[in-house]
Amino acid sequence: TAMDCCRTARRLGGEDVKVIVRSGFEEMKASPWEKEDALHEDIPILNFMVPIAFTHADGKLTGVTFQKVKAEYDANGKRSLVPAGEPDQTIPCDDVLVAVGQENAFPWIERDCGIEFDKWNMPKVDPKTMGSTNPKVFFGGDAAFGPKNIIWAVAHGHDAALSIHKLLSGEDITERPLPEVQISSQKMGIHEWSYDNDISADMRFKVPHRDKVVALKDIRAEVELGYDLKLALGEAQRCLNCDVQTVFAAPLCIECDACVDICPMDCITFTQNGEEDDLRARLKAPSPRHDQALYVADGLKTGRVMVKDEDVCLHCGLCAERCPTGAWDMQKYLIDMTHAGSSCPSKSRSAA
Ligand SMILES: Cc1cc2nc3c(=O)[nH]c(=O)nc-3n(C[C@H](O)[C@H](O)[C@H](O)COP(=O)(O)OP(=O)(O)OC[C@H]3O[C@@H](n4cnc5c(N)ncnc54)[C@H](O)[C@@H]3O)c2cc1C
Ligand code: SF4
Ligand code: SF4
């Protein structure tokens, strides 16, 4: 929000616009590229400054006084902002935009209509059904769990629509239809695949911007011009092909280790099985974090197991291309959520 406010202020005639934040620059909620774009439009971002007073003269705002702070962390890593011991700083200004985020407020919902509220005065909403405690009232988007983003708002809308559909059809809204799942090989020839698997070490390509002088003069001028073909192809090559899975068939594997040698991420290991901690420590690239899944396959002729660290796999497909027996296959995984409508009744769909 702060990044939208400051850049809009520049376009509305603000010549000297500053963003002043309590936290450090790195911890700001804005994305790195949003901060970059604000700095590019000559908007400095001053950090570790806590507002303590507005100053005024003759009934007019003259500035804001800030206390300088620094971050201190306790043993649990919890941050506190404590006075830095430097003198307060007053920044003169004639306007202030308070961009501190938003919260929901529902004073207009009668408290006797069957919708229960929690201790924060927010409605109690079931995250699965989006239903409130009044069975006929559903919430979604920012109103459900506080400000999020458009993707969440759309997803909540679908979930609430499904609940309403089921409610009107006399069905149990807590029973959700399964999504449709498909997984299909991307192999097109002996060593040919239906997707491009270049391994790119490129950083994100910047979207070209309109000339700053022009962009700042006209609030309607679109700033981001979009990629041209060359940049678009470069950016697309950074795709990690997350929708393409490595699928292993142990009976086909002759344990030649060719996939282990070619994997750019060292994420395949053939080894003796063992307790999880021990196994994780023995991987080619040790993987101590239990919350990151391992793909373990047995059934190999030597009695070993194939272990693959899903977290570091680039889905590049080199293992499948190199494998002489086709034991690795690259398969595209599609998940199609069931939305309200004709395909909705839960019994007519099933997971593949
Ligand atoms: C400055 C800013 C920048 C953002 N940038 C992004 C971004 O880049 N990407 C992103 O994904 N999200 C962004 N968001 C968040 C995103 O806008 C919201 O998450 C999203 O709009 C929520 O959708 P919604 O339908 O739940 O609510 P809203 O879009 O807020 O719609 C609610 C509607 O209800 C109306 N309304 C309110 N009260 C009543 C009432 N009593 N009676 C009738 N109507 C009422 C309001 O007028 C409004 O039209 C941004 C938000 C802000 C504030
Ligand atoms: S897809 Fe690429 S990164 Fe993943 S296991 Fe195969 S070779 Fe390694
Ligand atoms: S390249 Fe194929 S056959 Fe060789 S070890 Fe890997 S999966 Fe097994």
- Share of β-strand residues: 15-25%
Total beta strands: 12
Overall geometry comes to extended
List each distinct ligand once: flavin-adenine dinucleotide, iron/sulfur cluster
Identify low-pLDDT runs.
Answer: 348-352
- The first-to-last residue Cα distance is 42 Å
* Average of pLDDT: 92
- Written as H for each helix and E for each strand, in order along the chain, the element string is HEHEEEEEHHEHHEHEHEEHE
Helix content: 10-25%
Any idea of the CATH class of the largest domain? Alpha Beta
- CATH overall fold name of the largest domain: Alpha-Beta Plaits
List keywords for this structure.
single chain, 352 residues, alpha+beta, FAD/NAD(P)-binding domain, Alpha-Beta Plaits, 3 domains, four-stranded antiparallel beta sheet, three-stranded antiparallel beta sheet, 12 strands, 20% strand, disordered C terminus, binds flavin-adenine dinucleotide, binds iron/sulfur cluster
Outline:
This protein has 352 residues and is an alpha+beta fold.
Textual characterization of the structure:
- The strands form 4 sheets. Strands 3, 4, 5 and 6 form a 4-stranded antiparallel beta sheet that branches. Strands 7-12-8 form a 3-stranded antiparallel beta sheet.
- Strand 10 (294-297) and strand 11 (305-309) form a beta hairpin.
- The protein has 3 domains: 2-92, FAD/NAD(P)-binding domain; 103-176, FAD/NAD(P)-binding domain, CATH 3.50.50; 185-202 and 237-336, Alpha-Beta Plaits, CATH 3.30.70.20.
- The protein contains 9 helices and 12 strands.
- It has helices at 2-11, 32-40, 142-145, 150-168, 212-217, 229-236, 258-262, 276-281, 318-322; strands at residues 19-20, 45-46, 49-57, 60-73, 79-83, 89-92, 180-185, 244-248, 268-271, 294-297, 305-309, 328-336.
- With 352 residues, the chain is of the alpha+beta class.
- The structure holds flavin-adenine dinucleotide and iron/sulfur cluster (2 copies).
- The site of one iron/sulfur cluster (SF4) has 14 residues, from helix 9.
